[in-house]
Each structure stands twice: as C-alpha cells, then as structure tokens.
Amino acid sequence: MLRAAIDLGTNTFHLIIAEVEQHRIIKIHNRISRVVRLAKDGFAPISEESIQRALLCLHDFAAIITQYDVEEVEIVGTEALRSATNQADILERIRHSTGYEVRIISGEEEAMYNYISCLKAIPKTFENFLIMDIGGGSVEFIIGNQDEILYLQSVRIGVQHLFAQFCPSDPITPEEIKSIFTYLNLQLHDLRLAIDQSQPTYLVGVSGSFEIVAELTYSGFFDDRYATILIDAFVQCYDQMIYTTIDQRINTGKVTPDKAELLITGLVLMRQVVNMFTPTQILVSNYALREGLLLANKML
Fold first, then answer.
1. Banded model confidence at residue 172, pLDDT cuts 50, 70, 90
2. Using CA atoms, how far apart are residues 231 and 113, in angstroms rounded to an integer?
C-alpha cells in the first residue's frame, strides 16, 4: 500500500511517500523537506506572507503526490497551527486550495508518533533512552525503551519560540546564553526529575538541528536510519559554533541559509539537555513524525 504523510511543522514542512505493510515501511519512494517558517512573523496570528508560503509548498507537494499511485494522504499540523489564533481560516484555505484536510495533533500525540518512528530507526537496546524532537514551536521529550514509554512531555520551547522571546544578537552573547539556560532550567524541571528517576543511557535526537550537528561532526547516517554523534564531538561542535555569526555558519557549507539563524537556539537546547544527564552518545534518528504517521497507521 502506497501512502503519503505530510507534517506541517512550525519551521519545516515534510512530505514522505512510502510503501507500507503491517506497520513497516517497505520502501520510501520520495521524501522531501522544505523550510516554510510558518511562524516567522509570530504565532498569533500566522501572517499572510507565511500562509502564502505554506500554500505554495502544499501545491508543490500535491503535484508530487499525483505522480504516484497513492491510496491515502494524511496531513497533520503541529505547534504553529495548534496555537494560531487564525487556525480555522488557515485550515479552510488549505482545504479550498488543495482539497486536503489537515488534522491538528496535540504535543503528546506528536511525541507518540516520534517514539514509534524512532523505534524503527535506532538499534534495539534494553536500556532506557531519551528522545528529543526539537521543533520550531515545541520540543517533545520521551523517555522509554523498546517496550514502553516511561515519561512523555511536550514543552513550548522550540527554536522559533526561543528566538522570538530572547532575540539573540548576531553573534549571541554569553549573557544571552545564560538567560536562555536559566529559562530552560525552569521549563524542564519535570524532565530533570524524570531523568533522575529513569536514568536514560543515551539521547535520541530528532530534527534539523540534530541533523546539522551530524553534518558538522561528519557523522554519516547508517543505512539511512540513524547517525551516531560522540559526546566529545558534540561539545567540540557546540564550542566552535555557538559564537559564530549567521554568515559564518553558512560559510561552513554545512548550514543552509534558511536554517542558519535558528541553529543557535537549537544548539543551546541540545547543550541544556546533554548537561542534564551526560548521555554516552547521541543517536540522530532519520525517522521522525512523518514516518511515525505511516507506521502508526492511525493506531493513536
């Protein structure tokens, strides 16, 4: 069965077209990500310019989907659409323009889909792990193992939210970093308690920020499913990149212009969590929400 899933993220829209059988992805026929920055001008409301970028992207995705014999298309909206004051208008315009119905999912559902997808991407283990999905609007945390979820939380501290709240300089200053760390310490109090109780061994990263760090540390993806980043390599990358300017990040050749601005808040988020429990390693999952939608097959 050929299915398509679209994740309307706060920063990036993702499309996957794949053959799925019995909750297994047999073959990926196409997978595309496009930076839209839906909440670039704010969450309440989403601006007209952002809506136009979203509609243009969805028209392109629709044209790609028609090239395949797709039996089912599922589209979900996450934090930007969850919190948008003009959500109803945006969904109606998407419906009128493309014919697609968008399902708004909660942060907890988003976390569940990421758990389902990561289990298929990372090596099997009997140890506990912490999944961290860094989005533009929210960050999802799941502590669990191959058999069960021990802790699940969605926190509105995505890279776009942090950037809009703290408006860091270019380059960011030590004082600004300290302010963000202080804020995150308060927001992640419950997560810290859960980490102390469950003692996860390693961190599973999901998102463009983790993928960029994998590129910067030359950590290639294994079998297109996951990459491994040693903690020393992450710390070195953080130290080298945190005080760079946007132009300097772009000039590395590893950071695209549309992701260079928000990479700094992504790095701070990652460093905050690494400091909380010092994982043995970071596994970067190449499966995310979009794959979870296909694998779950509406089980949630």
1. very high
2. 26
